[in-house]
Structure formats: structure tokens, C-alpha cells
Amino acid sequence: MKRGLNLEFPLSTVMVDACESQFLNDVLKCARILHLNETEIYFIEEDDEGPYSPRNEIEAFGLIHSTLCKFMEAEPEGTGIIRSLIDRVENCLESLSADKIFFRKVDTFQCDPIARLLKWASEKGIKSKLNVAVFEGCGMGGVAIEDIAVGDHVLNIPEQLLICEDMAMKSDMFTAIKELGHLNRETMTLLWSMKERYDPDSEFAPYFSSLPDSFNTGLSFGLDALKTLDDTLILDEILQAKEHLRLQYDSLFPMLSYQYPHLFPEDLYTWDRFLSACELWYSNGVKVIFPDGTIKTCLVPVAGVLNHGLYPHITHYSRIDSNSHILSLRASRPCRAGQQCFLSYGPLSNSHLLTFYGFILDGDNPYDTIPIELDLSGNLYQQALIEKYEIGLSHMVRGSWLSKSKLSPYGLPSRLLAALRIAIMPEDELNAMPLFQAHSLFFWQTSLENETKAIEALLSILSPMLESLGTSSSLLEDESTSLMESWDVSLAIRFKQGQRRILQSACESCSMWLKSLS
């Protein structure tokens, strides 16, 4: 994709309602492009002007909103037009998730550890517009205690309450083991937090006591759940991640317990607790930019009650204000009193969410993809041409229903198809191929024979992947059985169903394309 962006939008063109709509639409197209991530860029087609994803749309409107607010402060004489534009943006943000995904509030969460956490947070200077509630189908989550507008501070946390490496470096533990060169700051912080979590006299005891006994991420999957994930790519990811953590643990223990028994008692530093501590930092750790410019992974008290969602209310929360020394979580879109307030954990696939957070999104996750690696080691000429046009050999597919392009009517990514067309084309045809600008090659259709072979090649890649996941009826039977099974087996089955849905849509797109060619 190659597009020229005009970043200047004169407000003088905005005189009537119709002009306001056109002005906002033009600015929105540009703001969407500025907030694209790698996955969104990969799937954009030449005729696609958005919206690209709920998160991208919220961030794009957020950029427009903040820019208009700054302009209104600097140019008071133009406040009438700007105020009208701001109102339009806020209305768009409020309607983004209407009739999309809603979790019904069941009850306010009644739990002594949570109550102690909220009381401690208030006493320590954490300002919050949230309470904790139970939501149907979602479990515990943050609920707005009042109407929250765009730009409002949802949660303000003083810098000194962020749990990070600074605290570990000041502890007796660091003083004792800092000479051990193979321990980096992150590892020492992890070990420090393991002890701190079970210390009733810790400054952060109310926070640690509010955490669940187990985090139930993919790293804690049992044998039955791992067996369920057989023939999925995520199985290798989980096994490799767990093996890496086990090797790390074995390199530390029981050696540290022998050398420093008062700091690392064997009953506290077990493998299960080490794994649980890793899950805590994976699922709750936030990378924060401190006033001195350093980036540190932090545990943020109270913020952990906020769930991830496709339509988040909070999207940016990573920088501490250098004047107030406060980490502010501000609303990117409105949240009404009594509604669940969602936080974006990032543009994450279901495989990442399952492995490191212990859940998957049931809606249409635009970042849920299936990777495809093309092996052209025996076709050096084709490989060189693919590299020349910067098409690459690493590709992916996602649910074809997400595509809105008319240039790629069956929802298959044009970048992948361009690579396949070149990959199966004979060398003499490649030599006769006209010169292209890279982005034009994505929409170049070759001969009927070559086009057919390219789609057949893709289908030959996707079909075995689909077949290995079993039939939809067998997965439905597994799902009904899983209601009586453990949490991990149930989650594994739901993940496989999602993967099968993506692959089935891609295979059906290939079949429809082949039918149209014939």
C-alpha cells in the first residue's frame, strides 16, 4: 500500500454541517493511517479507507479529539466551529461499541481482599473513578462509578506506587546477590516479588493479597489441554515458553537456596510459585516510560481489575507525567456509570492472549491470524524477485469476513497472493513480466493458468491445516463435553474453534475464487 497523506486541514473550509462532515471524514482517513500497526498494514488493500479495527478507530478519533482541544485552547476565537467538531467526535466515540459487545453486570464484587485493595489505594493517593464488579461471561472487572467523558482521568497512580525494579534494587535481596553476574534486573525483580507477595508486612500487601491464587494462563495448561491443542501452532509456543522458564528456574534453584537460605527459603521458591510469578508479570506487567526516559515493566495497583476488550475505553497509559509524577489512565471514549470499563492490552492475537493472559476474545479479533511461511529454497530466481519487490516470505491469513475490499473480493490478502503468483511462475514468464512499482504488483493478475495454480497452491497449504483441527461437529461435541472438564481444556477447545473458523473461511474463499476462474 502506498498513499500520500496531506496533514494540513484548514478550518476555514468548515462553514456548514455538510462541510463539517466532509472535513471530519478527511481528517479521520489520515488519522487512521497514522495509527496503523503491522497487522493492520498487512491486510489493508488499495481501496480500503477504513475503519480497520475498533482499536485503530478509537485511537484515530482520539488523536483528532486531542488536537481539536489543544487548538481550542490556543485559538479562542474559533471555538464555535471547533466545539461543534469536538461534539461530533465524542458522539462517534460513544457510538463505536453500540450493539457490539456488552457484558451484563451481575453484582458489585464483594471480597475482603478487593475491598482492602481499594481502601489502601485511596489512602495511598490513588485517584479512581472505578469500582469492582462481576460481569456475566467476563468475571471480575472495573465498573465506572460515574459518567466518564473523553479525556477524563479514570485512574491516577503516583509514581512511588508502581511496583518495578527500583524497589527490588533497594531491597536486602539485591544487596546480597548483586555480585551474581548472570542475574539481570528483571530476574531479580521477579525473585523479589515472589517473596514480597507472601510477606504480610510488605508495603504492597493489600495489592498482592488481592491477586488470584492462580492465573490460569496457557503456561499452566495440563496434559489434557495440551493434548487438545495438538496440531496447532500455539502448542509449540506454549511448550517452548514453558521450557525456557523451567531452564531459567533450574539455573537459579536450588543453588540460591543453598547459598542464601535466609533470602530464598526452599518452601517459598518452588517451581510452581516461580511459574505463578512469571504469569503475574506476563499478564499484569505494563511497560511505563519514567520521567528520566527509562522504560520499566511495572505492576500497577488497581489497574489489574480492568479487562481487555475489542472496544477499549483506555488505550494509552504508558507515560508518567514529569511534573506531577503521576501515571494517568485517561478515557479514550466515554463510559457511562455502571458500565464495564475496558483497557486495551495491545493489538494481541488470541494465541498470545491465551498463552500469557489466560483468555481469548470471542468477538471478531482483527489481530487473530494464522501465519504462513513460504519455502522457496529451491526456487532462487523467484525468491530473489520476491525480495526485490519486498513482498516477503512470511505471510498470514485471518477471517475473510473482515475484508471490505472490492479489489480482493474473496478476502484473501493481496500480498500473499502476489508472493504465490511469483512462486509458481516459470522463469521464462518471470523474465517477460513487466516492471512494477511494488504496491502495484499486489493487484496484478497473471494468466488464467498461473492464477489458478496460485490459488490451488494456497489451498494446498490451508486444507491440511484445517483438516488437522478436526470437523466442526467434533469440536462442538468436544465443547459440550468440556463443560464438565477443567478450565484449560474448555479454553483450548474454544481456541481451536476460532482457528478452524479462520482457516475454513480462507479455504472457502479459495474455492470460490477457483470457481470464478473456471
Summarize the structure in words.
There is one protein chain. The protein is mainly alpha-helical and 518 residues long. 47% of the residues lie in helices and 10% in strands. The chain is built from 21 helices and 12 strands. The protein has helices at 17-34, 38-43, 54-74, 79-95, 112-123, 165-169, 172-177, 185-197, 205-209, 223-228, 233-252, 255-259, 271-284, 350-356, 380-388, 414-423, 427-431, 438-441, 448-468, 472-482, 487-517, and strands at 105-108, 127-128, 130-135, 139-144, 153-158, 285-289, 295-299, 307-308, 326-330, 342-343, 370-373, 394-397. The strands form 5 sheets. A 3-stranded antiparallel beta sheet has the order 1-3-4, with no helix packed on it. A 3-stranded antiparallel beta sheet has the order 2-5-9, with no helix packed on it. It has a two-stranded antiparallel ribbon with strand order 6-7. β3 and β4 (139-144) form a beta hairpin. α16 packs across α19. The longest helix is centred in the last third of the chain and has 31 residues, at 487-517. It is globular and about 75 Å long.
Write a short abstract of this structure:
47% of the residues lie in helices and 10% in strands. It has 518 residues and is mainly alpha-helical. The mean pLDDT is 87.
